[in-house]
Amino acid sequence: MNEALDTIILNSFRISLAIALIIIIYKRASAVQTINPDLKKLIHRYFSCYIALFLAAFIQMPYRCHLLLNKGLTHAQISEIFGIANIFVALWNLFMPIALKKLGHANLCIIVALSYFFNAGILAFGSQFTHFAIAGCLQGLTMPTAMMALMDYWMTEELLLPQNSNANYIFNEQRVAMSLFMSSSSSMISNAVAHNWGVEAIFSFTLSIPLASIILLVSLLHVKEKPEEKSIGGDFSKLKLWLTESPKNIIIIFTEIAFASSIISSYIICRRFYSLLLTNHQWDTYKAFTEFST
C-alpha cells in the first residue's frame, strides 16, 4: 500500500512538472520577441552555462549520501561533512560581495565551476574522511542557492539587461523553464547512470559538466564590450569607509558570523548525538529517553 501511494505521488509530481514545462515553453514560443539579437545570443550562452553548472548538482544530489555510505563513512561522519558544507555556505554568502568586487562575476563563476570539478573528482576517487571533508568545503561553494545568487548578480550588473524592454521578463521565464527541465530530467539521468554503471560513475560522469561550463564562461567574457568594468579590479575603499563610519557596523558583521556558526554548530551536535543514540549499544538509552519525553 505504501509503495503504491509513493508511486502515485511520484508520478503525479512528474506529470505536474511536465505540464508546467509545456506551458512555459508554449508561452516562451508565443511571446513577442523584442530583444536585441546580440543580447539574445548573450542570454542563450548564459543559459547554456547555467544548465551545465546546475545539471551537475541535480545529478549528484540523490546519490551523494549513498556514495559516502558505500565508501565506509558512518552517519555521524556524513553529518559532519554536510555541516562543514553549510558552514562554507554561510561564509560564502557573507563574503561573496567582497569577492565580487575583487575578482569579478565571471571570474568567480569560473572558480565555482572548478570547485564543482574538484568536488566531483574527490567524491568519485577519494577513500578517507579527510578527502570527503575537503569535498564538503568545496560543496559549500557549489550549493545551487549560492550559485543562483552569484549568477543573478552577474546578470543584473554585467549583462546589463535593458530596463525598457521585455528582456528581464524573458530571462526570468527562461530560467523557470530550465529549472523545470532539470528537475524533471536529472533524476532519470542519475538513476540510469547509477543502474548501468554504479553510484561512483555518477560523480565521474559529472566531472565533464563543469569543464563544459568553464569553456562557456570564458566565451562569455568576450561577448561584448562592457561600458564599465564595475566588478573586476574593484577595491575595498567603500568597505573600509562603511566599517569606519560606526563601530556598530563591525559588530553587525561579527554578530552575523557568530549567529550562523552557532546555528550550524548546533545542527552538527544534534545530528551527531542522534546518530550515537541510534547505535545498537545506545538503543536502550534512546528508548528510555523517548518514553520519558512522551
Automatic annotation (TrEMBL):
It is a multi-pass membrane protein. Keywords: Cell membrane, Ion transport, Membrane, Transmembrane, Transmembrane helix, Transport. It comes from the Eukaryota. One of its GO terms (cellular component) is plasma membrane. SUPFAM superfamilies: MFS general substrate transporter. GO terms for biological process: monoatomic ion transport. It is found in: Cell membrane. One of its GO terms (molecular function) is molybdate ion transmembrane transporter activity. The chain crosses the membrane at residues 6-26, 46-63, 75-95, 107-126, 132-155, 201-221, 250-269. PANTHER family: MOLYBDATE-ANION TRANSPORTER, SAM (S-ADENOSYL METHIONINE) TRANSPORTER. Mediates high-affinity intracellular uptake of the rare oligo-element molybdenum. This is Molybdate-anion transporter. It comes from Trichomonas vaginalis (strain ATCC PRA-98 / G3). The lineage of its organism: Eukaryota, Metamonada, Parabasalia, Trichomonadida, Trichomonadidae.
